[in-house]
């Protein structure tokens, strides 16, 4: 009696069918991907167009701009507008004032936000909802409604025409938004985590710095970046409180280039380019911090 060896079962048909499905999907997704990529490139070009025009006009002479307009390439790449801007404006002092004010506001505002949000979101103080409504209202008030009490308050405290007047004001304003945001996040912390730390003998300060702060650190990093950029771009309140040229920030120094009856466009573009470079460098340095802080919690 002869026995035949069992023939191995093949799953080529099954494999082929499963292989053909992703290939078909890839073929269907191919044109869609190119459409999405083309749209993203188009949006990027539209967003970069003002920056390109800014760079082109910053390296033009006034005569070249008057003759060919803002959209033409420079007939001769000139540094004259940049030199004129540096001659008319103490750029290094304005840069130092902006960096000092923005950095201190970012650090102090984040610290005040953390402490106040810890009391509201974890400490469960009475009237926390009303407090959060007040903080939210403070972020919505226009600066024109605040300038009179801020002006007289700076004069009364002797901080008028000093960087501390702006630092104090924006620390409070930025901390109002930071408190509203962080307290909402802290309210979602698991109570069991805090109770376990308390059972281990940790006090309130130990719980804050050993339990709450590590969890909130990515969000705090994003807040610090935002506080820095928001304070850097502030114009109206520093314009009123910093009338002395020695304490003016970069946006105020840039505004001094606009005359009452005439404006040198190439000079203004050169100043805008130099004013933009520090924020670009700042974003390049902290882009990883932003991406980590924004995506934290999206993946378990």
Question: Can you describe what's shown?
Answer:
The chain has 300 residues and is an all-alpha fold. It folds into two domains: 50-66 and 77-89 and 257-300, no CATH class; 101-247, Orthogonal Bundle (MetI-like fold), CATH 1.10.3720.10. It is built from twelve helices and no strands. The chain has helices at 12-58, 62-68, 80-88, 91-122, 128-140, 143-157, 163-186, 191-199, 204-233, 236-241, 250-255, 265-295. Mean pLDDT is 83; it is low at 9-19.
Provide keyphrases for this structure.
2 domains, 300 residues, 76% helix, globular, mainly alpha, 12 helices, MetI-like fold
Summarize the structure.
This protein is mostly helical.
Number of helices: 12
The H/E string reads: HHHHHHHHHHHH
CATH fold group of the largest domain: MetI-like fold
Mean pLDDT equals 83
Kindly name the structural category.
mainly alpha
User: Could you tell me the radius of gyration in angstroms?
Assistant: 29 Å
What's the total count of β strands?
0
Beginning-to-end CA distance, first to last residue = 63 Å
Within CATH, the superfamily of the largest domain carries the name MetI-like
Strand-residue proportion:
under 5%
Helix content: over 70%
Number of domains: 2
Most strands sheet: none
Instruction: Give unreliable regions as ranges.
Output: 9-19
Please write the CATH class name of the largest domain.
Mainly Alpha
Identify the CATH architecture of the largest domain: Orthogonal Bundle
Morphology call: globular
């Amino acid at each position: 009696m002869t026995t035949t060896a069992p023939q191995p079962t093949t799953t080529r048909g099954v494999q082929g069918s499963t292989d053909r499905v992703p290939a078909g999907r890839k073929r269907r997704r191919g044109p869609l991907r190119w459409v999405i990529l083309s749209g993203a490139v188009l949006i990027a070009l539209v967003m970069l167009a003002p920056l390109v025009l800014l760079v082109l006009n910053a390296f033009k002479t006034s005569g070249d701009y008057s003759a060919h307009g803002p959209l033409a390439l420079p007939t001769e790449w000139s540094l004259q507008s940049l030199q004129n801007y540096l001659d008319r404006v103490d750029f290094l002092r304005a840069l130092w004032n902006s960096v000092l004010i923005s950095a201190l506001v970012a650090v102090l505002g984040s610290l005040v936000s953390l402490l106040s949000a810890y009391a509201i979101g974890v400490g469960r103080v009475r009237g926390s909802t009303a407090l959060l409504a007040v903080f939210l209202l403070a972020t919505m008030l226009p600066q024109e409604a605040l300038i009179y009490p801020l002006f007289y308050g700076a004069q009364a405290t002797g901080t008028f025409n000093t960087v501390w007047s702006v630092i104090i004001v924006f620390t409070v304003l930025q901390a109002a938004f930071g408190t509203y945001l962080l307290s909402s996040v802290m309210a979602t912390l698991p109570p069991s985590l805090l109770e376990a730390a308390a059972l281990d003998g940790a006090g309130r300060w130990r719980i804050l710095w050993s339990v709450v702060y590590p969890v909130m650190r990515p969000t705090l990093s994003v807040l610090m970046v935002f506080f820095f950029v928001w304070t850097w771009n502030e114009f109206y309140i520093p314009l009123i409180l910093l009338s002395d040229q020695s304490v003016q920030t970069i946006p105020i120094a840039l505004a001094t280039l606009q005359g009452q009856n005439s404006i040198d466009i190439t000079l203004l573009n050169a100043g805008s380019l130099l004013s933009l470079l520090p924020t670009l460098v700042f974003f390049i340095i902290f882009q990883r911090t932003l991406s980590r802080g924004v995506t934290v919690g999206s993946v378990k």
